[in-house]
Amino acid sequence: MSESIQPDVTVDSRGATCPGPLMDLIGKVKKLEPGTVVELLTTDSSSSHDVPEWVDKAGHETLDVVEHEDEGYWSVFIETTK
Amino acid sequence: MTERIVIVGGGTGGTVLTNRLTDELAHEIDAGDVEVTLVNDTPEQTYKPAFLYVAFGKKTMHEARRPLSDLVDLRHANLLVDRVTGIDTESKHLTLAKDDGGLDYDHLVLAMGANLDPDEVPGLKEGGHHFYGPNGAEKLRDALAGFTEGHVVLSVIGVPHMCPAAPVEFVLMADAWFRERGIRDQVEITYTYPIMRAHGIQSIADWATELFDERDINLETFFNAEEIDPEANVVKTMEGTELDYDLLVAIPPHTGSELVSDAGLGDDGWVEVDKNTLEAKNADDVYAIGDVADLPTSKAGSVAHYAAGTVAARLASRVRGLVPTETYDGKTICFIESGMDEATFVEFGYGDEPVVREPSQLLHWSKLAYNESYWLTARGLI
Ligand SMILES: Cc1cc2nc3c(=O)[nH]c(=O)nc-3n(C[C@H](O)[C@H](O)[C@H](O)COP(=O)(O)OP(=O)(O)OC[C@H]3O[C@@H](n4cnc5c(N)ncnc54)[C@H](O)[C@@H]3O)c2cc1C
């Protein structure tokens, strides 16, 4: 399914330590219009559940989480709603 | 032909880089083969980490500033006090606020730091204090000095923001400071953070959460301030919660530089760079170091410092016709105050999980000693 998701914006947080992928994503999302699809690239396994948890709290939507096992990273697709 | 290296921004990154280059390339500069120019919009440099201490009346702004002419080697570098107003990476030309002719370059390094953008959150300018700029730190010092009871809220709003440790330090120092003044029992302290824990780094979050608990500092997570009501003294969040305050200390929203977005070098004003070579992704012969670079690590002085070392080595190889091999591995060092007389220390590279050391008085003195000797660092001496 995710093969068909075309992100409008990509946030590449692979290798990010401080302050981390979710913080990178929040910084970006705050500046986006509603209806923007964002792909977060992260090497941090905990992001695959932390990110959807925040997305849900903030009232946005998680579209998909895809693991790129060979390359060792995850793509988290979200859509802004406000 | 002379190779012209131009560095925009005479903060931590820009001065360390200028000094590394003039040291390394002194011979080539003397022979007229290389020219190094540092452009800064003010004649002096401001040392930002001092703001935290200014807020508690432990340092003055006067101590936080030094003339750039004392920090760089003027025999080998040109110092231009002017504001860069435009970057054309095609014609390799910079426009300047004062000098109509502008400035041409062969190699450009951007080191303009980060800017504050409090207007991004309605009501913040009217309702909130901060210690992220010289005026803000002085106003907060006065507000804190007159504060005897009520609710102090430290809210991390800016993402990304300079020095991810400073907000934790602020509440731990505030706790100790109110205790010293004998009024801690009349003051409630709350720390708010955007994600599900107290800090982006898990180990720092765990360490801070335990300390907050011990020191009676409230922790609010998943808290992204969206609007401040300065009349009612209320913070409203993206997540739909509200928090009352008597004194709001915010880490304000940050932006990069408009020059960067206008030149197509990166969104939101942060330069998109290769995280190891620090070369801009969207233009040739352009590098970015320090806070203006979109690096996956902290916006911290130590990052600006180490990245400057990498770019100096790469540029030295370039002008000598050699293949540059030096790379930056994300090395970041942070001293973290955990009160008024103790501190801890973390060190990490890209993708590492740092270990938080046991806080000690020695590390506190090390941080103060570093602040004192910072000017030697800027001059490239340590
Ligand atoms: C309260 C606080 C506490 C901090 N504590 C720490 C700490 O304990 N440890 C740590 O490592 N870091 C700390 N930092 C972060 C550190 O100060 C910054 O990361 C560091 O200064 C970044 O260096 P820089 O060279 O990228 O930018 P800066 O030092 O900000 O310098 C940028 C320079 O560029 C100039 N400039 C900008 N635009 C232009 C233009 N268009 N034309 C010409 N000149 C321009 C500016 O005037 C400035 O001189 C702290 C920051 C704050 C705010």
From TrEMBL, chain A:
PROSITE patterns: UPF0033. It comes from the Archaea. CDD domains: SirA_YedF_YeeD. Pfam families: TusA. The keyword Chaperone does not apply. Keywords: Transferase. Belongs to the sulfur carrier protein TusA family. PANTHER family: SULFUR CARRIER PROTEIN YEDF-RELATED. This is Sulfurtransferase TusA family protein.
UniProtKB/TrEMBL annotation, chain B:
This is Pyridine nucleotide-disulfide oxidoreductase. It holds the Pfam family Pyr_redox_2. One of its GO terms (molecular function) is oxidoreductase activity. InterPro entries: FAD/NAD-bd_sf, FAD/NAD-binding_dom, SQRD. Residues 4-298 form the FAD/NAD(P)-binding domain. It comes from Haloferax profundi. It comes from the Archaea. PANTHER family: FAD-DEPENDENT PYRIDINE NUCLEOTIDE-DISULPHIDE OXIDOREDUCTASE, PTHR43755.
